[in-house]
């Protein structure tokens, strides 16, 4: 993830003040008071997936308040979903109080007054979710706020693991895939929040669909690995090969067919992109995990009914006409 702010780069006496300024710039306008203004320890790392922003944050003991005069400026219209790694943060909003701790997550609305209190050094993921897009995923028109999401099992665990996968693999995900992954994250979080507080198992199909989305995100981030196979995909996602094949029965193709299709589609996009005008067809094919240019060409023609050179040549011809 991209480092947005880190107190280690600053002089000790400047860290507390700089952290307060960074929080207002990265997140929202708030009042932030750290217990230790000097020698404050904290960082913010960020990755963006379309309209969704995922941050990995380390903070020292502090209190944060977002008051009515802050929300009047309407910086952003979003929710935040918190996933605690270490420590605990307490959220107060609209007369409700909720602790975010390891294994328990929750959602709050950023454009209503709230307070966050952190009594020990804490580290967490925050998923910033655009309000209108997230609201559409609920029949009531709005998600439940400050309700418990069990992150140790069922849909809650899948949501937490999906966030971890996005954080770890984001450097290997291209721009075309990021928006889709952001939409998938909102889908999975919405499914987790649909369950009753304390009961996140949901029905089996919902769990399978959420798990399938998480696995597809892992595959998407590793398309360029020529060794990627169903066995490796299952192992890296902590499931059996049999269960992996069972999940893909929910789609119209096997895991191997889906992997091959996504590689071919990515190659098509790369061949058609002017940014890759100087790259050879073989280089592009190898970058997406193919190990034989002739085999790639045969698969490409079978899928798209044109040769790879036709797709790349179409851009070259259009560029010459424009010139």
Automatic annotation (TrEMBL):
GO molecular function: DNA-binding transcription factor activity; sequence-specific DNA binding
UniProt cross-references to SMART domains, sorted A to Z: HTH_ARAC
InterPro entries (UniProt xref): AraC-bd_2, AraC_XylS_family_regulators, Homeodomain-like_sf, HTH_AraC, Tscrpt_reg_AraC-type_HTH
UniProt entry tagged with the keyword DNA-binding: yes
HTH araC/xylS-type domain span: 213-314
PROSITE patterns: HTH_ARAC_FAMILY_2 (PS01124)
Keywords per UniProt: DNA-binding, Transcription, Transcription regulation
Gene3D superfamilies linked: Homeodomain-like
Key word Transcription regulation present: yes
Domain of life assignment: Bacteria
A Pfam family assignment: HTH_18
PANTHER family: ARAC SUBFAMILY, HTH-TYPE TRANSCRIPTIONAL ACTIVATOR RHAS-RELATED
Protein name: AraC family transcriptional regulator
């Amino acid at each position: 993830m991209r480092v947005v702010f880190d107190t280690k780069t600053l002089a000790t006496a400047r860290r507390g003040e700089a952290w307060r300024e960074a929080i207002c710039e990265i997140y929202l306008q708030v009042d932030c008071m750290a217990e230790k203004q000097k020698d404050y320890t904290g960082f913010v790392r960020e990755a963006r997936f379309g309209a969704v922003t995922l941050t990995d944050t380390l903070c020292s003991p502090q209190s944060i308040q977002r008051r009515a005069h802050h929300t009047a400026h309407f910086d952003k219209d979003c929710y935040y979903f918190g996933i605690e790694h270490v420590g605990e943060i307490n959220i107060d909003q609209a007369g409700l109080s909720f602790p975010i701790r390891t294994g328990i997550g929750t959602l709050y609305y950023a454009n209503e007054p709230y307070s966050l209190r952190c009594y020990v050094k804490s580290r967490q993921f925050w998923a910033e979710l655009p309000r209108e897009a997230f609201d559409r995923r609920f029949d009531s028109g709005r998600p439940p706020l400050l309700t418990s999401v069990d992150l140790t099992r069922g849909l809650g665990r899948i949501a937490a693991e999906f966030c971890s996968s996005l954080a770890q693999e984001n450097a290997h995900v291209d721009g075309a895939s990021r928006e889709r992954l952001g939409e998938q994250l909102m889908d999975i979080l919405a499914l987790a929040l649909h369950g009753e507080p304390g009961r996140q198992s949901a029905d089996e199909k919902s769990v399978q669909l959420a798990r399938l989305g998480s696995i597809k995100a892992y595959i998407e981030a590793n398309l360029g690995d020529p060794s990627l196979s169903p066995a490796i995909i299952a192992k890296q996602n902590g499931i059996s090969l049999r269960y992996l094949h069972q999940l893909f029965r929910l789609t119209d193709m096997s895991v191997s067919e889906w992997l091959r299709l996504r590689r071919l589609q990515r190659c098509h996009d790369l061949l058609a992109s002017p940014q890759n005008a100087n790259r050879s067809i073989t280089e592009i094919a190898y970058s997406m995990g193919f190990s034989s240019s002739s085999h790639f060409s045969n698969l490409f023609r079978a899928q798209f009914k044109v040769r790879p050179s036709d797709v790349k040549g179409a851009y070259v011809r259009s560029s010459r006409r424009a010139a």
